Amino acid sequence: MKKIQSAAVLTALLAGVLLGAAPRVAAQIYPNDAGPTKIDVSTYPKEMQKTYEEFTKKCSNCHTIARPINAQFVEMSAEEEAKARKEQPDLFTDTRIIDVNEHAWNRLVKRMMAKPGCPVNKMSGKRIWEFLVYDSKVRKTGANAAAWKAARLKLVEDFQKKHPADYARIFPK
Ligand code: HEC
Fold first, then answer.
1. How would you classify the pairing of strands 73-75 and 99-101?
2. Is ligand 1 within 6 A of the CB of residue 120?
3. Over the range 61-88, which residues count as b (16 or more CB within 10 Å of their CB) and which as e?
4. Ligand 1 atom closest to residue 68's alpha carbon, by position in its atom list
5. What pLDDT, on a 0 to 100 scale, did the predictor assign at position 11?
6. H/E stretch holding 173
7. What does each C-alpha distance from 172 to 33, 85, 96, 99 come to in angstroms?
8. Per-residue pLDDT averaged across 40-45, rounded?
9. Residue-wise pLDDT tens digits, 121-147
C-alpha cells in the first residue's frame, strides 16, 4: 500500500513539474541561440538604452536573449523598403540572413505576448517592439550590414551541420 501510494505521489509530482514547466520552456531551437547575448547600446538614444534593460529581462524568460538578438528580422515601412532595395540591394538576397517585413517585429512581439506566462504587457510590448525595430536597422543594415551578414551566416551554417532536421524545419525549401 505504502509503495503504491508513494509511486502515485511521485507520478503526480512529476506530472506537476512537467506541466508546470512546459509553457516556460521553448523546446524548439534556432541558429540564433548560439550567438552573442549582448548588444552594445552605448551609442543608442537614452530611451532605447532603458528599453534594452527591459527587453533583456522580459524576453529571456523562456529562451535566452540570444534568440531575439541574433534573429534575421528587420522591420521597415513599405517606403523605407523601396528606398533600401535601391540603395542596399544586398539586404534582400537571403532571407535566412535578413528577413525584411513591414510587420516583422510587431507580429513577433505579439506572438510572444500570447504565450502562456509571458511577462510582457501592452505598454512594455510597445516599447520592446520600438527597440527591436530601431536596433535591427542599426545592427543589420547600412554600415554594419557586412559584419551582420558574416556573423549570421556562420550561425546558420553551423546550425545546418549540427541540427539538420531543425534547419529543414526553420528554412523549408
Ligand atoms: C512565455 C515564453 C516566452 C517569452 C516570455 C518570450 N518568448 Fe520568444 N519564443 C518562445 C517560444 C516557445 C518560441 C518558439 C516557438 C515560436 O517561435 O513561437 C519562441 C521563439 C522566439 C523567436 C524565434 C522566432 C522565429 O520564428 O524565428 C524570437 C525571435 C523570439 N522568440 C523573441 C522573443 C522576444 C523579443 C520576446 C520578448 C518580447 C520573447 N521572445 C519572449 C517563448 C517565449
1. parallel
2. yes
3. bbbbbbbbbbbbbbbbeeeebeebeeee
4. 29
5. 52
6. none
7. 19, 24, 11, 15
8. 98
9. 999 999 999 999 999 999 999 999 999
The answer to whether the CB of 104 is under 6 A from ligand 1 is no
> Average pLDDT for residues 43-58, to the nearest whole number?
98
How distant is the alpha carbon of residue 79 from its chain centre? 25
Measured in Å, residue 3 CA sits from the centre of ligand 1 at: 42
SS3 103: coil
Percent of the chain residues past pLDDT 90, beyond the cut: 83
CA angle 129, 131, 134 (to 5 degrees): 110
Q: What distance in Å separates the CA atoms of residue 81 and residue 160, rounded to the nearest whole number?
A: 29
Which pLDDT score is estimated for 27? 75
Cell of 155: 550561425
Residue 69 grid coordinates: 538578438
Q: Which residue has the cell 506530472?
A: 15
